[in-house]
Automatic annotation (TrEMBL):
Residues 28-209 form the Glycosyltransferase subfamily 4-like N-terminal domain. This is D-inositol 3-phosphate glycosyltransferase. InterPro entries: Glyco_trans_1 (IPR001296), Glyco_trans_4-like_N (IPR028098), Glycosyltransferase_grp1 (IPR050194). Keywords: Glycosyltransferase, Transferase. GO terms for biological process: carbohydrate derivative biosynthetic process. One of its GO terms (molecular function) is hexosyltransferase activity. It comes from the Bacteria. Residues 217-362 form the Glycosyl transferase family domain. It comes from Microcella alkalica. Coiled coil: none annotated.
């Protein structure tokens, strides 16, 4: 097996790459973070990268050089409106997207277009790139169930809306030469519901060496959640589980992130009698986030709809055991009994029992979980992700990197 190249290696064939995203920094979510890291990693490897995404503030279309993850890239910001039911999400204007996509493609003349969702920006870029014979790669981070809480649909209307969303996804992703999503479970899901074939499972990846594990005996019990504070994450289950634990454990909860559920969760913490042990950090700078990842005893992810969970990978790169819902793609990262524990969604007692096992575990047993987290996440280094996408951009056949454990595949 050849040694992995240095993460700063320059690609032998620099390309002009255009990335289309419906959500991009400064948005805080997994899809935006992936697009940002992908773009920065490609710049670092010598490619010319352009990003198309919604403007995060009011104003006309603007093209500007922006710094992301320490790298400079050209970002084409499109006039956007905020989606009113959502606390922060903004979308580029759908009725202008094909005109804007055509203009940008004709100006940039990219070698490849890589869109990150089919909703607005991806749809416009895919259609216009197809008309110009430009290679198209599509990546899906979207789960219709996550979007439903911000729509008026319910009951049979909700089911019809979800079917319509998957049908629309199939049309746009059908224009792509290759389609990817972060895990095999998510790829199978996309093939089944969007009617696609041959979807690649390619990890979002992360810079594993940017995180710091702590192997010293713990001096406090801290459960950490990192992510959007929204209903789809089921953070209430964490608070209810902690309230069930023996008070002598003095478990503290750190919640990093923000969203429309924060106020209701703060009230719930008061009702459960744990408010003095729960800290809502809101959106926090990277330095604070990494400090808390090193400090924590366990990372928790109660969400049922994770296509991969970059936050969970960040926790594993920090050497944390993980307790998460046995749902969607989390079992790809959480190997039950090896680097943490899975619980059945909604089983609060089961959640609490698994947390208690970690908080009362002998130090040597805890070290085994921590080391296994590091072993599993080592297969998700971003260098492998970047190499695989570069191969797809060149039109090469690829073998999917192993994304639910340690392994290696070369493009």
């Amino acid at each position: 097996m050849p040694d992995a190249p240095h993460p700063h290696a320059v690609s032998p064939t620099p390309m002009r790459i255009l990335i289309g995203a419906d959500t991009f920094a400064p948005d805080v979510n997994g899809a935006a973070k992936f697009a940002e890291r992908l773009a920065a990693g490609l710049v670092e490897r010598g490619h010319e990268v352009h990003v198309v995404g919604p403007r995060p503030e009011d104003g006309p279309n603007v093209t500007r050089v922006e710094q992301h993850e320490g790298q400079s890239m050209t970002v084409h910001r499109l006039r956007s409106w905020r989606w009113k039911p959502h606390p922060w999400l903004r979308y580029a204007l759908p009725w202008r997207i094909e005109q804007n996509a055509a203009r940008i493609l004709d100006e940039v003349k990219p070698d490849v277009v890589h869109f990150q969702s089919h909703i607005v920006v991806g749809r416009g870029l895919a259609r216009q790139a197809a008309a110009r014979g430009i290679r198209i790669i599509g990546t899906n981070h979207f789960m219709p169930d996550n979007a439903m809480q911000f729509t008026p649909f319910f009951g049979s209307l909700k089911d019809s809306a979800i079917r319509g969303m998957w049908k629309a996804a199939g049309r746009t992703f059908g224009l792509a030469e290759s389609v990817t999503t972060p895990t095999r479970k998510a790829a199978d899901y996309l093939e089944e519901y969007a009617g696609l074939e041959g979807v690649h499972a390619i990890s979002c990846g992360l810079h594993i060496d940017h995180y710091t594990p702590d192997f010293a005996p713990r001096t406090e019990n801290v459960a950490l959640f990192l992510g959007r504070v929204e209903a789809e994450k089921h953070i209430d289950e964490l608070l209810r589980a902690v309230a069930m634990l023996d008070a002598s454990l003095d478990v503290k909860v750190e919640i990093i992130g923000d969203g429309e559920q924060r106020a209701s969760l703060e009230r719930l913490a008061v009702e459960l009698g744990v408010a003095d042990r729960v800290h809502f950090a809101g959106y926090a700078p990277e330095e604070y986030l990494k400090q808390q990842l090193t400090r924590a005893s366990v990372f928790v992810m109660p969400s049922r709809a994770e296509l991969q969970s970059i936050a969970t990978m960040e926790a594993m790169a920090s050497g944390l055991p993980v307790v998460g819902a046995n749902a969607m793609a989390l079992p790809h990262l959480i190997h039950d009994g090896e680097n943490g524990f899975l619980y059945e969604p909604g089983d609060i007692r089961g959640f609490a029992d698994r947390l208690q096992r970690i908080f009362t575990m002998p130090h040597d047993d805890l070290l085994e979980l921590k080391r296994e987290s590091l072993r599993i996440v080592s297969g998700h280094d971003i260098t492998r992700t970047l190499e695989t996408f570069e191969a797809l951009y060149r039109g090469e056949e690829v073998d999917d990197p192993i994304v639910d454990g340690v392994g290696s595949a070369t493009p």
